[in-house]
Amino acid sequence: MSAAISLYEQLGGEAAVNAAVDIFYRKVLSDHRINRFFDNTDIDKQAAKQKAFLTMAFGGPNHYNGADMRRAHAHLVEKLGLDDTHFDAVMEHLGSTLRELNVPADLIARAAAIAESTRSDVLNR
């Protein structure tokens, strides 16, 4: 029966995703390795897009209407050199955010696998 429950529901739904995204962006914006990618970004809008994207990606309601990962990040790859080291830093913050929220390790692994599945598109490969 639990196999039918989405990761989104297992994480705690909208409130949990919202809390995770807020904490995640605090970590990202304070990280000198990657915060320059957000210099010209409206963080409130970015966080709203991220919440919608993660909700969809984790099996919740699909209200995401942003660009696909490749198109959304292409300018960062071309102009600012977004690469694997930056993606790894983002993954590090995703994991630490979920651990901070006391998410069980198996759910963190599932969330990380979903995020990892976007690496090639994000890095425009």
Tell me what the CATH architecture is: Orthogonal Bundle
Radius of gyration: 14 Å
- As for the number of domains, it is 1
Identify the CATH class.
Mainly Alpha
Task: Assign the CATH topology.
Answer: Globin-like
Total beta strand runs: 0
User: Could you name the CATH homologous superfamily?
Assistant: Globins
Distance between the termini: 38 Å
How does the overall form come out from the CA principal axes? Answer: globular
Beta fraction of the residues?
under 5%
Structural class: mainly alpha
Q: Determine the number of helices (DSSP H or I, runs of at least 4 residues).
A: 7
* Rounded mean pLDDT score: 93
Q: H/E element string?
A: HHHHHHH
Q: What is the percent of helical residues?
A: 55-70%
**Segments where pLDDT lies below 50 for 5+ residues?**
none
* Major sheet characteristics: none
What does this molecule look like?
There is one protein chain. This protein has a single domain (8-59, 66-123), classed as Globins (Globin-like). The chain has helices at 7-11, 13-29, 43-57, 69-80, 84-100, 105-116, 119-122. The relative contact order is 0.16. It contains seven helices and no strands. By secondary structure, it is an all-alpha fold. The longest helix has 17 residues, at 13-29. α2 packs across α5. Helices cover 66% and strands 0% of the residues. This is Group 1 truncated hemoglobin. Keywords: Heme, Iron, Metal-binding, Oxygen transport, Transport. InterPro entries: Globin-like_sf, Globin/Proto, Globin_bac-like_CS, Hemoglobin_trunc, Hemoglobin_trunc_I. Belongs to the truncated hemoglobin family. Group I subfamily.
